Write a sequence for this structure.
């Protein structure tokens, strides 16, 4: 997934054996990156978290997302762990065609995933005259 720093400057790095193990998981969908940034808002409380692997749903289990989490300063273990966490249910513009999932896990610290990042182009900025339509 993301090789780019989103917000929190913490980063974890996987050894070859760990990458091989994560990629060998049954129903795994992602190529596991060697180095991953924490997905949370800079200065967040608690453990750092990064999305490591996605697992397809099967007959017996729904699709799952594997996150790797670690305490500050322990990015290579032994306290680092990778586990499936349920998704955050928050949605931006819920119920509209522009609905966007948070993408983080349930109960995460800091901002939701859709709240990160500045607008990329002018097209991403709602013009003032549109905003005024909603002020009535
Ligand atoms: Zn972090
Ligand atoms: Zn969220």
């Amino acid at each position: 997934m993301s090789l780019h720093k989103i917000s929190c400057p913490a980063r974890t790095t996987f050894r070859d054996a760990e990458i091989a193990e994560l990629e060998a998981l049954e129903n795994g969908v992602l190529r596991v990156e060697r180095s991953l940034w924490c997905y949370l808002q800079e200065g967040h409380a608690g453990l750092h978290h990064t999305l490591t692997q996605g697992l397809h749903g099967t007959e017996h289990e729904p699709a799952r997302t594997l996150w790797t989490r670690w305490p500050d300063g322990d990015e290579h273990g032994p306290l680092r762990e990778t586990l499936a966490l349920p998704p955050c249910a928050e949605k931006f513009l819920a119920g509209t065609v522009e609905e966007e999932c948070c993408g983080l896990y349930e109960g995460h610290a800091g901002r939701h995933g859709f709240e990160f990042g500045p607008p990329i182009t002018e097209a991403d900025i709602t013009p003032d005259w549109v905003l005024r339509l909603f002020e009535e």
The pocket of zinc ion (ligand 1) is lined by residues 8, 10, 38, 40, 44, 48 (CB under 6 Å). The two ends are 42 Å apart (CA to CA). The chain has one domain: 11-133. Residues 6 and 117 are 7 Å apart (CA to CA).
